[in-house]
Each structure stands twice: as C-alpha cells, then as structure tokens.
C-alpha cells in the first residue's frame, strides 16, 4: 500500500480503538468496490483494538442514502463514530455532481448537527480505474484511511467532552 496522498502511515501507530463502537455504512451501488473498502475498514478497526462485536455494519442502496442513514444512527446514538463508504464515478451526465455533492453536504451536516464524528469514506472519481486504485487495499487503501480517521476523531471527541 502506498501512503502517497494519505496520512494513514503517520496515523497507523497512533490510534487505539479499545472500547470504541463504530458504525460502518456501506452503499450497495458499485458494491465490488464498496465491499472491498468495507473489508479494509473492518480489518483496520479490529487491528487497532475495536472488538469485532463493536463494529456495526449497515448497507444502504447508494451514496444518496448515506446521509439519511448516518443521521438516523447519529440520533439513535451508541456509537463513537460513523464511517460512510460509497463510490460515485463521473459519467456523461450531471448526475455525478448532484449525488457526490449532496452526499458530501449531507454527511457534513450530520457531523455538525450531532455529537458524533462522521467520516467521509466516499470515493468521488472521474474514472472507474481511479476508484479501483483508491479502493484496493494493496494500493491506496482509502478504507484503511477512513477507519484510522474514525478512530482518531472518536478519541478526539472523548478527550474533549
């Protein structure tokens, strides 16, 4: 895995997920890539001390639904962080702009409205090849990066209650 364009190498040793509960929301659209990222998220969380039973997995239809589900989970409570995983690849129509933009806006709003970190693990790429590179645990591994960011932010929230 390359740490180019990532801070995961720097964070790798610094995070500890012991005693944390993490919700992982995964979009089914582009599932070949989102499932790969979800697997990397889960492996990283467990590697960093999160108990297997404290990783809650949820699936939603696509990136559009991620903010809705994140909002529901944030209101429900009981998690130290929410990781939203999706893949939106630019096509020939403006659909990409609406979905990617509203997904980002919605997840950001959930993070601001609720007292829980929400991690944007949504790939927004121009090509399928770019998405494949970013999702692949042997290359850019953005799933691992999202998991490490969730643990860092959850620890920050715990320190600053």
Describe the model.
The chain is 48% helix and 18% strand. It has 161 residues and is an alpha/beta fold. It has a 4-stranded parallel beta sheet, sandwiched between helices. The protein is built from 6 helices and 4 strands; from the N terminus they run αβαβαβαβαα. Strand 3, helix 4 and strand 4 form a beta-alpha-beta unit. The chain has a single domain, classed as Lumazine/riboflavin synthase (Rossmann fold, 3-Layer(aba) Sandwich), CATH 3.40.50. Helix 2 (31-47) crosses helix 6 (142-159) and helix 3 runs parallel beside helix 4 (95-113). It starts with 7 loop residues before the first helix and ends with a helix. It is globular. It has helices spanning 8-11, 31-47, 66-76, 95-113, 128-135, 142-159, and strands at residues 22-27, 55-60, 81-89, 118-125.
- How many helices in DSSP terms? 6
Pattern of helices and strands: HEHEHEHEHH
Compute the CA-based radius of gyration.
15 Å
Distance between the termini: 35 Å
Provide the β-strand percentage band: 15-25%
> Which second-level CATH architecture applies?
3-Layer(aba) Sandwich
Summarize the structure.
This protein is α/β, with parallel strands linked by helices and 161 residues long. It has helices at residues 8-11, 31-47, 66-76, 95-113, 128-135, 142-159, and strands spanning 22-27, 55-60, 81-89, 118-125.
